[in-house]
Amino acid sequence: MSIAFLDIINGQWRYRVVKPGYDARNLNLPANAVVFDTSANEFLSVYTSGTLFIANGNSGHYKAVTWPDPGYVPFGWAAFKRNGSFDIPVLSVATQNYAPGAVSIVSDGLMVETQGLTYPAELDYIVFRASVT
């Protein structure tokens, strides 16, 4: 049993991830057991994405990016671009301890701790139509 696979299925490359306790190779799983499947457009479709330019850290921890509230806290990913490389911050959905560059996802945006970063900084982000809960 495997929670993920990358393989050629019916002549096409397919990547599939399922929840723990399920077998990714069982192609008859219910939709709520599948986290991501390249053969199904509804899984992890992009809700929003972009690049945020941060000139300085005078704002501290603030909602740096906003979007319409989908009614849940969406799954997302973010990375700071610096000097031709990426620095991936720890993403959380609820935290009280903000480290420099920390990114928190809330239902209607990204909270970013900007104090202590090396400026200027760019934050690339992508948010999916999937709940983290």
Description:
Strand 6 (74-82) and strand 7 form a beta hairpin. The chain is mainly beta. The model has no long low-confidence stretch (mean pLDDT 82). The strands form three sheets. Strands 4-11-6-7 form a four-stranded antiparallel beta sheet, with no helix packed on it. It is built from no helices and eleven strands. It has strands at 4-9, 12-18, 34-37, 46-54, 61-66, 74-82, 85-87, 91-92, 103-106, 109-113, 121-131. The two termini are 24 Å apart.
What's the arrangement of secondary structure elements?
Blueprint: E1 4-9, E2 12-18, E3 34-37, E4 46-54, E5 61-66, E6 74-82, E7 85-87, E8 91-92, E9 103-106, E10 109-113, E11 121-131
Parallel strand pairs: 8-9
Antiparallel strand pairs: 1-2, 2-3, 4-11, 5-10, 6-7, 6-11, 9-10
Brief overview:
The protein has strands spanning 4-9, 12-18, 34-37, 46-54, 61-66, 74-82, 85-87, 91-92, 103-106, 109-113, 121-131. By secondary structure, the chain is mainly β. The strands form 3 sheets. The protein has a 4-stranded antiparallel beta sheet, with no helix packed on it. A 4-stranded mixed beta sheet has the order 5-10-9-8, with no helix packed on it. Strands 1-2-3 form a 3-stranded antiparallel beta sheet, with no helix packed on it.
- Name the beta content range: over 45%
Oligomer: single chain
**Rg (C-alpha, Å):** 17 Å
What is the count of helical runs? 0
Which structural category do the helix and sheet elements fall into?
Answer: mainly beta
Main sheet record? 4 strands, antiparallel
Q: Tell me the overall shape.
A: elongated
Would you tell me the overall average pLDDT?
A: 82
Tell me the span between the first and last alpha carbons. Answer: 24 Å
Instruction: Name the strands of the widest sheet in spatial order.
Output: 4-11-6-7
| Total number of beta strands | 11
Secondary-structure element pattern, one letter each: EEEEEEEEEEE
Low-confidence stretches: none
